[in-house]
Design a protein that fits this description.
Elements: H1 6-11, H2 22-25, H3 38-45, H4 56-59, H5 66-74, H6 78-86, H7 92-98, H8 105-108, H9 120-134, E1 149-153, H10 157-168, E2 172-176, H11 185-188, H12 197-210, E3 213-215, H13 226-231, E4 237-240, E5 261-262, H14 263-271, E6 292-296, H15 300-311, E7 316-320, H16 332-340, E8 344-346, E9 349-356, E10 362-370, E11 387-392, E12 401-402, E13 411-417, E14 423-428
Length: 431
Amino acid sequence: MAELTKKERMQIPRQPMPEQAPNSRNKNFTEVNLGFTEELAKLEAERCLQCPKPKCIEGCPVGVQIKDFIKLVADGDYLAAASKIKENNVLPAVCGRVCPQEEQCEAKCVTGLKGESVAIGRLERFVADYERTTTGIRQAEIKTKTGKKVAIIGSGPAGLSCAGELVQLGHTVTVFEALHDIGGVLIYGIPEFRLPKEIVKAEVDALEALGVEFKTNSVIGFTDTIDELMTVEGYDAVFIGVGAGLPYFMNLPGENYNGVYSANEFLTRVNLMKAYKFPEYDTPVFDVKGKNVAVFGGGNTAMDAVRTSKRLGAANARIIYRRSEVEMPARIEEVHHAKEEGIEFVMLTNPLEFLGDEAGWLHGVKLKRWSLANLMLLEEEDPLRYPVQSMLCQSTWQLLQLVTAQIQSLKRQHPISTSINGVISRLKKPQ
C-alpha cells in the first residue's frame, strides 16, 4: 500500500461504480453494475485508513478481515485478497453484489464519519470476479476428515455458507434443495440484472469441487423426514436453512382477481423459469407489455419486481408504499437505480380494495393516503389509523404485482437450537 497520510486518504473521493446507462438497462436483463477496473479498485482501496482496531469487521456478519484484504488490493495482490476474504466468506462474488454493506460493514467505516465510507462491497466483488476470470475459483484447504455427516436443508445463502464452512472443517456435507436448481433466493428471487446466475453457479460449482453434495427436488418432510435423515441415513447433524419464501398477502377484497400476483410467484417465473427469455423459454407469466404496473411494498423484493416489470415492457411501473422513502427497507442503491430507470414512487399510500370486472380481471385499485406527520407516532400508535384522504385509481391502471414488506411466516434470525439434539435452525418464529 502506498505511503499516504491519513489526510491524503480522506481526500480521495469514493470511486463511482461503472454501470449501464439507465435508458438502456431498463430494457435488458444484463447486470446493471459493471464492476471496478483495476485502477478504480486500487484507488478505492487507498481510501482505507487501516485502522488499528477496524470497526468495519464488527459490522460484517461473517467477520471478513476487511482491513487486510483491502491492503492487499491496494498492493495489487488480488489473488491473495481473494484468499483472505474466503477465510471467512465462501460466497464473496454473491455478497459483494447483494449484501447490504451500507447497513453493515460500511456503516461502521471510520472514513464515513467525515465523508463517504470505503466501498467495501464493491472491492469484495472486484476481488472475487478477478479470481474467477483469471485463475478460476481456487479451492480452500480442507482439514482432516472427521467422519461426521451433516445434512443441510435449503440451498440459499444460509445453506451454502454453512456447507462451505463445514466441508472445510472436514465434515461430509449434503445439501437438500426442494427446487430443481441450487441457490434458493439467489436464483428464484434476485433478478439477473442484480445477480447474474452464472455468478451463483460458479460459487456453487466451487463448493461442489470441495466435496459438498447437492440433491435437488428433495422436499424434506416429504421425501425424507429429519428423523429419517438422522436415524436411517446416518446424519450426525441437520441444519435447517429453508428461508422465508412464502408470500404474505394483505387480505383485502379483490385479491383473487386475475392480474394480482405475489412477488414470489412473479419473480420465480421470471428468474428461475426464465420467462424473461421468452420464447427461448416458454414459461407463462402475466404479460405486462404496454400496461401500467403497481407494486405494493418498499423492500428489495418490491424493487426487484417493479424493475423487472419495466424490463418486460410495462408502460408505467410504480412503487406504492405506506410510509415515506426514509422508512423504505430497500437498499439505497436499488432505490436510486429504480428512479433512474423511470420507476415512479408513490409514498404514504396503502391499498384498500382491488377492483375487477365481471370476467374476474383486475382493472383498478382503491387507495388511501396518509399524513406524513403521523409517522412520528410509529412507536406509539399505528399511523395508518389516521387517513387524510381517499383515492381511487383510474380504471386503466392495471395492477400486476402485490408486494408487501415481506412479513413472512418465519423470520430469519440468529441460528438457534431446536427440540431435536443435533438439529440447528436458521429460523425462529416471530414474537
